[in-house]
Fold:
Amino acid sequence: MKTINKLGNISVMALAAVSTMSVISQANAAELVIGTFGGSFAKATEACHVSLFTKATGEKVLLTFGSSVQHAAKIRATKGNPEVDLAYMDISIAKQVKAEGLLEKIDFASLKEYGDVAKQAFDVDGTYVNFMTAATVIAYNPKVITTPPSSWSDLFDKKYAGRMALGDITGTSGLHFLLAANKMNGGDLNNMDPGFKALAELKANVEVFYTQADQIVSLFERGEVVIAPWYPDRIGSAADKGVPVAVAYPKEGAVGIQPTLVIPKGSKNKDLAMRFMEAVLSAEGQACFAEKKYAGPVNTKVTLSDKVSKIVPFGDNYQNLWYPDSDVVAKKRPEWTKRWQRQVNR
Amino acid sequence: MPALSIKQLRKTYGATTAVDSFDLDVAEGEFVSLLGPSGCGKTTILRMVAGLITPDSGQIVIAGKDVTHVPVHKRNVGLVFQSYALFPHMTVFDNVAFGLRRNNLAEDKVKERVITVLSKVRLEGLEDRFPKQLSGGQQQRVALARAIAPEPTILLLDEPLSNLDKQLRMNMQIELKRLQRDVGVTTIFVTHDQSEAMAMSDRICVLESGKTQQIGVPEDLYHRPENKFIATFLGRSNSFTASIGKSVSGKLVQLDLDEGIQILATASDKVASSGKVHVTIRHETVKISKNPPDKSKALNRFKGKVIYRAFSGSIIDYVVTLDDGPEFLLEATNVDGERHALPGAEVWISFEAGAVLVNELGDQ
Amino acid sequence: MTNRLRIWLNASGIGLLSPLAIVLLLAFIAPVLIMFPTSLHPYTPGVGIGEGWTLENYVEIFSDSYYHEVILRSLGMAFSVMIFTIIIGCPLAYFLARMQSRARNWLVLLVIFPLLLNLVVRSFGWIALLSKHGLINDVLLSIGMIDEPLKLIFNLTGLIIGMTHIFLPFMVLLVMGSIQNIPVDLEEAAAVLGSNRTRVFFSIILPLSIPGLLSGSILVFILSISALVTPRLLGGPTYKVISTLIYDEFMQLLNWPAGSALAFVLTLIVLVVIWATGRFSKRWMAHLT
Structure:
């Protein structure tokens, strides 16, 4: 009994250690290691970017999966000797990693596709390139809400009390909705009071604050939630699977999301990584990604099908996108998170 | 009114009948043993009396009250388990007090009673020990004290001595019997050990395959077995099959053993008719001698040769092969400490006509 | 000196443990120790982890009422889950342990089944059961026990229900092991001495299954307080617990120093719980073994 108890204690401690500390996984060395996002995003990466790259260069690619922050964490932990040669990450995280001096400088002008891509997609300091446009938009159930929502203020409508969801601030959509509500109520990035006040009042109507982007799929499916800020690519994929959900772009402008590609400092395959960037930025790669993943293209030579152009930020919707200053966001996000935890989520 | 009355008790497990048409009346203060080989149903009967097993049919009456359908915790019986089943997380005191507290007795009364009972089993001063700190014999006595503390109507003992070593078992037999007399509690004792049963019981009920073979005082069972099973089950004996031969006189009858010798037995109803019978001759009734014994003293006498001798202190076991007949096993008392009749010796064996137990052959 | 060391090593039998010890050390203890210095560095958003040394991360945890609330909630949640698994698990364990039929193995498998399920499947199940239009609310509404659907998910209630569900098997298996070691004779002895079933359970079974109950309770408590995914799915961000807060610091804000500090506080809580339970069980077990 005694030994069992002791063993129990040890295993309990081990369990505790495992669950409180993150263990960094090892990737095997391959030709080119790419860190991308999981799920349907990974499938699209494989089908559009990797196949194109492999066709052009004949080189093999190993994909590893994670969120922007997980990639950033990995780059930080393996400082100067990275496991990944190229990573997909959100612009705010890319800026954070850039500030920590963990990214390679890239001569963007030497990229084959440089001329075709909108100039604002490239970092002026040459560390990241924004390869697609996404946004935080309004997702709604078209069976229940017959008149599509047209404004962020529709989410504040009392008739959706208990039937709406918001993203937590730890996810992009939560942050963006906070910023949009703040702006709508007269605030700016240096004065977030109106935003927090609006959300503190809205809190009572919220059925769930989601932390995982796909968490609300089943809620839309079961009709428990009929309206929520979400992402066009997720909405498009869910609608393709028969979930009753559609995209609405608010008239105040959807909040833009800029996923980027970065090359960590010390990458041993920098040239190959740049060839991969070319594949991602090529008209073919961009069109493929737009059709498969509802990603707004940055390559100006791309044309889209009608269906896709209604979902992705395109045309007027694209012109209307609002990009909060990601430098300020990166700096203030921890502070806002704390405030959110205390005022919205308490 | 009997303290315990069992009528037509029956219990089956699937196709096996554990207990069949069992009847038993036990008088107030009587000590009755249920004796039999393992699987004979004796423990099942005991557990049905305790209420731990529900009978298929039949009736159990304790002190005039039909308890057949009374749940176990309301029967007020005492049960001592083979394993003792002491509560390991309780002290000796709490173990003994367990049943008393269930009767909602005031705590000072509980204490008084526990002390009394512990002194009866000679365990004074061990109240605060835990069972693990006691010897086997002490644990045995705690189990006994715990069972008698709430003054049960009947005390049920399930092979309580079988986990003790031989020496201790003898002492506990005496102690248990004395305690039982002293307390005067009606007791049912389950055992597979016949000498234990005979030494302690007022009456013994021998069971086989769920059926009563014979109930009676130990002497009746041993000397006047009602059937072949009892005759061979109790004591150590030589078994033969024989045909009833001619009547020698009014009192004696000749039996022709299948092994080819003739012996004389006392006439009775069982040997009145002709045909095949079963013959039992106990080891200790067969005498061994160097010279032919006086015919007047032993009606049955045969010459033979010793083929085995085992000395075990007070008694000596022999195996003798008759010159023109079967082997006989016998038991002689060690009287002079000499090495008589070693293997190979020519000897005579003899036994009385009254030592020949004759029973129906039954099914072979 | 080396000789004495060798003698000690042989006598203590600790050498037998060394492969396991090395694995444990490398896989679990080393990373923990490596992280400790991290928790003592400052962090500036937009710049990164500073070079200097500071206790600020710990000071903040101990001075900010928000953290107190989260820590208390975590403790309360883990404690409730523990209590519920005991209340549901003990009778279940007793039933399974004393079952004679061959169906027992299947029923045990059924108890373990939630552990074998993929988390996504499990959480869909929870939503189907617990949401506003889920099975439980539908049934309660239709039999008229409630007028308004109960909020059973995305709050503390949902969190406790979900955690109790997934951690119940640990409790059942450990307590069942303990109960199987209790001879049936003891129960029968207590019954013969006048105890009904409830009394037998509380006076014999429960005290004697304390070893399993304690192991089960520690395990469930620690699994609950350190669980991450279930709280994120079922509790939502409104009902933050320490583990989700650590996750946010690490994975959303990149503030490793603050995350490490929180992780150490959690580890400390866990160690205190194990130590206290260990002391209690030692005392209890003293006369049983």
In short: Residues 166-183 of chain B form the longest helix (18 residues). The domain at 236-360 of chain B is CATH 2.40.50.100 (OB fold (Dihydrolipoamide Acetyltransferase, E2P)).
